[in-house]
Amino acid sequence: MPVVWLIDAYRAGERSQVRALVEALGWPCEIRALDYRKWDVLTHLLPGGSLRGIRRASRESLQPPWPDLVISCGVRNEPVCRWIRAQSGGRSRYVHIGRPWADPSAFDLVITTPQYRVPDRPNVVRNTLTLHQVSQPRMAQGAVEWADAWSHLPRPFTGVLVGGDSGPFTLGPKAASRLAQQASQLARDTGGSLLVTTSSRTSPRATQALRDALDAPHYFHAWQPDRGAAPGRSGPENGNPYWGILGTADRFIVTADSIAMLSETCASGKPVDMFDPGGMHTPAAGPRDFRLGGSLYQALIRWGWGPLTRDITLVHKELVATGRAAWLGEKRQPCRTEASSDMERALGAVRGLFDQLDSTRVLD
Hints:
The chain has helices at about 10-25, 40-45, 55-60, 80-85, 135-145, 175-190, 205-215, 240-250, 260-265, 290-305, 315-320, 340-350, and strands at about 5, 30, 70-75, 95, 110, 125, 155-160, 195, 220, 250-255, 270-275, 325. It is of the alpha/beta class. The strands form 2 sheets. A 6-stranded parallel sheet has the order 2-1-3-4-5-6, sandwiched between helices. It has a 6-stranded parallel sheet with strand order 9-8-7-10-11-12, with helices on both faces. Mean pLDDT is about 90; it is low at about 360-364.
């Protein structure tokens, strides 16, 4: 089998994507977690391969024998992965997930989603949603482990998954209060309860406003550092109920800033409603929070350099059109089942990189 090096992503959402792909491939894998130099930004953006953006200990961890496949994500890892491929004499294939900062021709394969607006190329796979590790066994395990935490609450359960600021969109106290009010009304209408969790991008002010405005039966979890929701670490002793909510909830409300959480809830097969913090769907979504960075980002999308921006509304439109999600309070479209899943397309493209290997190499 091909040997894989996973150059680990440095953001949680991206880390789950690269690990999901490696897990699904089932090939021998070695994980390299790199330590980056803080101020060496230019190295990440220049073409070619280089190790100047990582510290010495990380450089020393990259030694032959070189892998057959390198999988990674994030601008900081791009020059490192190109360096590995060059050291292997071009034998190592390089698969990049998410937003590519270099031209797609710099990679053997790019697996991306609509918001990054990557140009169509033969080596670009454009999925609707991000790769994930959601499976029925993992959700069932999470449901069992967390059952006691909300056993006193009435069903049906609505999972409320909360992100944060994203590019031009701001999820501040006003949006958080509006989300709590709408979710609470849904719980009252159904006679059920809310299972609420914030995330690493939810600001303290938004978290507090959300908590204060909830007025229906609920379980509330405020995200804390170093308490990730990785599969296998989902129980109450870990403190993060994310997998428990995925497995237990009968439906979901997800703040539409988080493509990762939309991907995971859509994979659950349960109804998903998207909450607009403001400016994503309709101008009159409700009171909006002002953020200078959001306004500047909006100008960047309109007039700036394309690789610096992303437009997540392109994902929202695709989800609504295919019936995989709806805007909170709006009618859901009939669901159109795709012939193949995002993961299946990604796996097919990665395995296809090895179809033309020299016949002297044996793949099990």
